[in-house]
Amino acid sequence: MTRLSLSFAFVVTIFFTASCDSFSTQTYTPQQIKKAAEWAKTDQYPNFDSCDASDPEDNFVCFKNTIAGAVENALYENSFIANQEIDEELVLEILIDENGAISLADVENGSYVYAAVPELSAVIENAIAGLPSATPAQKSNVEVAVKSTIKLPIRVSASVQ
Predict the structure, then answer these.
(1) Which residues make Cβ contacts (< 8 Å) with residue 140, sequence separation at least 6?
(2) What is the DSSP letter of 84?
(3) pLDDT digits (tens, 9 = 90+) for 54-81
(4) Which letter does DSSP use for residue 91 in this model?
(5) Domain limits, the chain
(6) Is the distance from CB of 82 to CB of 116 less than 8 angstroms?
(7) 3-class SS at 131?
(8) pTM, whole model, 2 decimals?
């Protein structure tokens, strides 16, 4: 009985040792990953249904203009009173996730402006949150929807009267 067990253990060991190659995985260098993630001409930018130009670049310009217009309209609808003179550029970092949801990810250079006009933050966030869902960006080399970000610069100027 022990001889049979020993033979079986030997066969199982040989089987697992020989089949380890079947479980090998491919490893990629950081450079290969970075190259695969770079934007290619065949990739699709995020888009709104209302932007239906035949040229992808024109669609993306329409997409960015729609976002900029929503923020601009929200700013013009509100009367802001600054407690100090302002002439700053904010850079809104807008995230479009793989489901097409749009959100404000970050604001660069916003601390000075937000300190001078505290209610500005909520107005910008509401304008971005009020945008319709978008068609997410698509990476053609893997054919999946991907997260993307765009940066929207906004010049904020105010004078004290």
Answers:
(1) 40, 42, 43, 44
(2) S
(3) 788 888 899 999 999 999 899 888 877 7
(4) E
(5) 37-158
(6) yes
(7) coil
(8) 0.71
